[in-house]
Amino acid sequence: MHEQSVRPASATSGLGAAFQQTLPIILGYVPVGFAYGVLAQKSGLSGINTVLMSILVFAGSGQLIAVGLFAALANPLTIIMTTFIVNLRHLLMSAALAPYLNSWSKTRLALFAAQMTDETFALHVGRFAKGQLGQRQTFGINVIAHSAWVGGTVLGLAASTLITDIKPIGLDYALAAMFIALLIGQSKSRLHVLVGIVAGVLSTVLLQAGLTQAHVLTATIISATFGLGVYVWTSKRSS
To answer: Where does the pLDDT of residue 141 fall: very low under 50, low under 70, confident under 90, or very high at 90 and above?
Structure first.
């Protein structure tokens, strides 16, 4: 009797902890998913296909790009290849998390990978480094985040006839705001803060210089390399 009374409480606390950790993602996913739902409907994508894309693809930037290409009447192969290239970063994210998940079954790895996004990766990489490897909480975070995205999509579809432009209400800034919140949570040292500042300044400079397509990726690579160099240098000095 005692064990039966404890297990539900443990499950509840695990789900509650998952929700608490996922809250910054939810606050970003609902408005961005809403914006995607509105844009998809404006682009001529059917309601069922709009929702199915959020369920099966579940990639904010990839979905928004696909909708833009769909509106531009691009051929299906172009849409598929562009989305594939945009999401290639998942190979690096998966490689970063793989050492923590080598004891998981292939089925659970596939389920985990299907729901991994930039934001849940940022959350999991911090959790796993602290030894928080519980599968219940890990999948709870993924399911909650995915549900928030699909829910935002459905709300956007429902309101698409009432909204003509998402920019005046600031929905296009929601994704950036969510990444800022996640970045703050990941910044554990002065070096992290320094790398973040360098990346932001460099990205802005590259954009103003005319590198409109790859300024973020280029700034990220340069800043990460800079951060690694500083870390190696300070480690050698301290030793």
So the answer is: very high
